[in-house]
Amino acid sequence: MTKQSFIRGTMILLAAGLLNRILGFVPRITLPRVVGAEGVGLYQLGYPLLVVLLTVITGGIPLAVAKLVAAAESEGNERKAKDVLRIALALAVLLAVLFTGGLLLGARWLSTEVLNDDRVYYTLHAMSPMLLVVGVSAVFRGYFQGRQNMIPTALSQTAETLVRIVAMLALAYALLPYGIPYAAAGAMLGVTIGEVCGLAVIVFQYFRTRGAYKAFNQATIGVGGAPRRLGASLKELLRIAVPVTGSRMVGSASYFLESVMTVKALAVAGVAVVAATTQYGALQGMVIPVLLLPGVLTYSLSVSLVPTLAEAAARGDMRLIHMRLHQSLRLALVTGAPFAVLMYVLAEPICYFLYNDAEVGGMLKLMAPVAILLYFQGPLQATLQALDRPGTALLNTFYGAAIKLTLIYVLATQPQFGIYGVLAAINVNIALVTILHWNSVVRLVKYYFPIGDLLKTAVVGAAAGWLAHEIYLGEWHPSPLARFLAAGFAAAAAYLVGVAAFGLIDRDDLGRLPFWKRRK
Asked: How far is Cα 161 from Cα 208, in angstroms, rounded to an integer?
């Protein structure tokens, strides 16, 4: 049986997540060059609706499965673990079939009346099979998370990413002669094909490992678990899943309404539909992916944090809760700060060399200052969910979404702001939700982050940013690309030296990493 510690599980997901984010940038960079910002806009207009539907179908089910399977395994109750998996799969399949039918029947109305661009119709059809595939896959990932075995999830994500890259670009290029709407639909269909591959991998891992879990529990506990009514398991599953789904639904619905309101608000400001779709594609398809790249660490930490904190809370071990929370937040700060600094200082060259569009850099530069707060959100929200406070996370997310949508309507409808009004609204949302999550966690576990770590990171980050600025703007080399790469590498090196000098990462932190322990 394969089971990893908190740090090892985090590192496995981190490695897979980092690889997937890097690989995922291949279509992010190439797709705009194939279909243009307008094609990316059509793709991105359909994506928020997909997120909403997947939130309803999966939502809190993977988290509920992870918690219940972890509890069943600690009791040696293998029967309960299997019951939870079966019920979650049945629920996910039922919801997926219902919403897939609704999407296919309502695609024409959604594209014309809601999304304000009838060309999205083909993208909506291309993404419809994904609902069932992702719903089932999410349940299995929650199952393995509860087993504290992150390898199947990592393998599944990597396989999905590799297939998606090839399928997205191949189908978008093949369908481009038929028009940009068909090319955007081809890109979405490529994502669906990747998800099918990811599901196949994780299902294979399930059948490969299920016998080992049963043998392990019988050998260590000696029992298979008492008979249990499926209704009781369903009730437990819904008790955890429904509040989490509600919390995530606020964020997903906010994302969907953001896409709808952005296009409509820009139209009120006098921006044509095609231009509005293009601007929205630049924001969601170019700027946001760069901003979210460092979030791979906080995502990995968040996934591994839930079962660890839930177990510590059940034992009343406040010291372990504080230690894991501090570890997660400090890693999020130290790893996210240099990215935020470079995205601000080198915004234009980053967007030029990635997308051949330096003008998009103005959007990235505006969002870079709130990036650190965004990277803090994952561990903070995971803490609230692990400690049975999903309702608190729900309210915090709702307040932020309400403010964001209000600001989009107020600012983006003004011709002098346009798309930058949308950016300002998103920044306010990120800051507000993070602050609310932080306040909730502090009140719940009486935890306080050392101000010294914040100040040290700020000093080191500012020094690295100044160095990158000076090197890039210097006249020491005629090639802008050479200066850009030199600025990035020099800033990274200076930042690492500063982090080591200030003790932001020490030997004790390195000693927690599995590969470092084997070297000692």
From this structure: 22
Give the per-residue SS3 of 146-198. HCCCCHHHHHHHHHHHHHHHHHHHHHHHHHHHHCHHHHHHHHHHHHHHHHHHH
Chain-centroid distance of CA 20 in Å reads 12
CA max distance for the chain: 75
Query: Nearest 5 degrees, angle CA 38-CA 132-CA 169?
Result: 35
CA angle (209, 211, 213) in 5-degree steps: 75
Virtual torsion, Cα 326, 327, 331, 333, nearest 10 deg: 0
Task: Identify the CA nearest to 27 among candidates 167, 189, 183, 211.
Answer: 167
Quote the DSSP letter at residue 115: S
**pLDDT at residue 181, as a whole number:** 92
Say what the pLDDT of residue 519 is: 47
- 3-class DSSP assignment, residue 433: helix
Residue 308 contacts residue 5 (beta carbons within 8 Å): no
Residues 106 and 114 sit within 8 Å (Cβ to Cβ): no
Query: Which residues touch 498 (CB under 8 Å, ≥6 apart)?
Result: 459, 460, 463, 464
Place of tokens 């390195």: 510
- CB-based contacts of 158, cutoff 8 Å, min separation 6: 16, 19, 20
- pLDDT (tens digit, 9 = 90+) per residue, 94-152? 999 999 999 999 999 998 888 888 889 999 999 999 999 999 999 998 888 888 777 78
Is pLDDT at 233 greater than 80 in this prediction?
Answer: no
Instruction: Please check whether residue 55 is in contact with residue 249, taking contact to mean a CB–CB distance below 8 angstroms.
Output: yes
- For the purposes of burial, counting CB atoms within 10 Å of the CB of 339, is it exposed (0-12), middle (13-18) or buried (19 or more)? buried
Output the CA–CA distances (angstroms, integers) from residue 210 to 2, 206, 207, 216, 252, in the order listed: 11, 6, 6, 10, 33
Question: Predicted confidence band at 301 (pLDDT cuts at 50, 70, 90)?
Answer: low
Q: Which two tokens stand for residue 222?
A: 């000696």
pLDDT in tens, 372-430: 899 888 888 888 877 778 778 888 888 998 999 999 989 989 888 888 999 999 999 99
Q: What percent of the chain has pLDDT over 70?
A: 86
Rounded Cα distance, 236 and 243, in Å: 12
**Total Cβ atoms within 10 A of residue 410:** 14
Residue 512's pLDDT band (cuts 50, 70, 90): very low
Query: Full-prediction pTM beyond 0.90?
Result: no
